[in-house]
């Protein structure tokens, strides 16, 4: 209860227009580019698995005292982070795409939106064709932006599209942690198996990957026995499940989306989904904040597109 006091305080301020919108932790530590800079990429090869729900709630759960968190919507054509958090802004990632060589921190700060809870958000382009142009003509832009600003934040949580193209490949290379989301359906499990095999062949350390089962049916009834349980999914994928987010009443999630708040802000800690999302945030926080990210010069010296076949010929 004491551990989540900062989270309760943020969401209290969300419902109090006279309260400060920014997290008081922002005033305790100067933003001089010396924060942890962990990049968490939330990815699934299948649509409809709940990546945006996972990403927005993960960002919210990671915002503990003196921790600064940014969400980047890297689904360039049809990103939903702004809708999930009820954010509208004239400035999006498209404002930064052609400024990646020398991105000014103050200018970046003027572009990102701020949710009432204090989460900073870099929104995807408002028009699909603008996002498609970035994806086709400047696929390195998103990774380059994150590389330049990551150390002004403790965590950068990136929501992605379900494709593996040059944009997503660059983000997976850059990531400190890759959260792979799977649902208990055979197509989703099959596609995640292909992605995990690809990551293994690309020599990605297994410790870098966290498997999350969303919409999980943990104790199936007689009529639900055809649905794979998290244990069966884990056995098939030969990988431990970091978190199992239970299937819940869709109205509960829709209510959160329509209010523009993360699910964990719905003031119902007895809901299993709220508890599991907080546990996922705590697990990643504990594993990553005890681990230093690679030296910045080492990061910059990495050859881009080293893992996947989207490099220049």
Strand arrangement across the biggest beta sheet: 3-4-2-5-1-6-7-8
Task: Give me the secondary-structure category.
Answer: alpha/beta
Work out the radius of gyration: 19 Å
Q: Work out the helix count.
A: 12
| Unreliable stretches | 19-27, 292-305
What is the averaged pLDDT score?
Answer: 83
Q: SSE order, as H and E?
A: HEHEHHEEHHEHEHEHEHHH
What is the number of E strands? Answer: 8
Largest sheet: 8 strands, mixed
* Outline type: globular
* % residues in beta strands: 5-15%
Distance linking N and C termini: 55 Å
The portion of residues assigned to helices is 25-40%
TL;DR?
The protein is an alpha/beta fold and 313 residues long. 38% of the residues lie in helices and 13% in strands.
How would you characterize the overall build of this protein?
- This protein is α/β, with parallel strands linked by helices.
- An 8-stranded mixed β-sheet has the order 3-4-2-5-1-6-7-8, with helices on both faces.
- 38% of the residues lie in helices and 13% in strands.
- The protein has helices spanning 5-14, 51-62, 81-84, 105-111, 128-137, 141-149, 166-174, 186-201, 230-237, 250-259, 272-288, 296-301; strands at 38-43, 69-73, 113-114, 120-122, 155-159, 177-182, 209-216, 241-246.
- Helix 2 (51-62) packs across helix 11 and helix 6 (141-149) runs parallel beside helix 7 (166-174).
- Strand 7, helix 9 and strand 8 (241-246) form a beta-alpha-beta unit.
- It contains 12 helices and 8 strands.
- The relative contact order is 0.17.
